[in-house]
Amino acid sequence: MPNPTPDPQREGPRLVLVTAPDAAVAERLAEGLLERELAACCNLIPQVTSLYRWEGAVQRDTEQLMLVKTTAQHLRAVQAFLKAEHPYDVPECIALEPSAVEASYLAWWLAAVRGGA
Predict the structure, then answer these.
(1) Average confidence (pLDDT) per 10 residues, the chain, 117 residues
(2) What is the DSSP secondary-structure string of 46-83?
(3) Phi, psi (deg, nearest 5) at residue 24
(4) Are residues 49 and 60 in contact, defined by beta-carbon separation less than 8 angstroms?
(5) Which of 6, 65, 108, 117 could crosslink 45 through cysteines, CB 3.0-4.6 Å?
(6) Measured distance CA(35)–CA(57) in Å, rounded
(7) pLDDT at position 48, please?
(8) How far apart (Å, rounded) are the C-alpha atoms in residues 48 and 2?
(9) Maximum distance among all Cα pairs of the chain, rounded to whole angstroms
């Protein structure tokens, strides 16, 4: 029996934006997501400056931005993982749906995310 082809409508790719306080935390979170097969890839972008309102005041922090490549099917598991493992009280977790992904890269992306559903 041939391997089933991933259904992009059901398992559509999602790019999740997550910030972490530093590289060590970002790497720990990325490794946890990859070990659980909840992400195909996590890109870590160092030293982004975040300005945001928190507890009535404007804050400024240097953070690490994570680009987490997952699927719609696994998004809830990614959110649950971040809620349990992230050091922030309110971790950023913004899922974007790509409008276009090159076909062979998309096939790899969808095949690489298998766990936690």
Answers:
(1) 50 94 98 97 97 95 98 96 96 95 93 75
(2) EEEEEEEEETTEEEEEEEEEEEEEEEGGGHHHHHHHHH
(3) -65, -45
(4) yes
(5) 65
(6) 37
(7) 97
(8) 45
(9) 59
